[in-house]
Amino acid sequence: MSRKYIENPNSCTLVHTMNVIGNKWKPIILYLLSNGALRFGKLHVLTPTISKKVLTSQLKELEEDGLINRRAYAETPPRVEYSLTEKAEGLLPVLVQLSNWAEQNYPEVNFEECKIHL
Question: What is the pTM of this model?
């Protein structure tokens, strides 16, 4: 699966940001990692409607863009953990604002515990 970009001939900062985090799963993955490192299996359990193939590609893209760290442990069975980089931690306040916006503008939706807290 090749990565799809929005053309950005004028080097617009918003277009660039959307190319990095604009996929529907990336902000959710970043949110899940905001509470600490997680293994692939746990990420998959927390996002049950994403296929393993798509989760793998999203994690690779986030790593390529410098937003997550991938740490492989030399163990049997293999263990890999994903965590946020400083660059991604800078996005968390923006994700909190998006979360707050949804809560304020859609009071009829019960968002339960799915809110980003810093």
Answer: 0.84
